[in-house]
Amino acid sequence: MVDRDFVNGKARDVRNAINELTRLASKRFEDMSLDEQYSMRYQLIVLTESVVSLCSHIALEAYGYEPSSYKDCVAYICQREGVSCVEDLKALVGLRNLLVHRYRNIDDRLIHNSMKSNFKCVHELLGRIVSKYG
Predict the structure, then answer these.
(1) What is the domain range of residue 81?
(2) How many domains does the chain have?
(3) pTM of the entire structure?
């Protein structure tokens, strides 16, 4: 059974992370402190893990599906809920993996530039999930 409180709590975490990322992205990269750059990384991790946590909960509780990975989890819920921008969300998971596991050096300028685009796909997925389960 899908837990509405869990869904709404994670949705709030997603919105808070997006708000903070939007605030950080409004600054020129050159004007960002090192703390703000690290905050940007952290908020991307929080955002992604909250999205994946939501997807995982719904996959298991609503559909009885146990995802094999974060990307599988997001792709499965996008398919089930009719969200077409699955590749954007899978790329977000990939970025989270880079930030967490530090597979290579991270160019914070590229992260900053990517944040300047909106979070349309995350909003679409979140809207579908909250309207159905929240």
Answers:
(1) 4-133
(2) 1
(3) 0.90
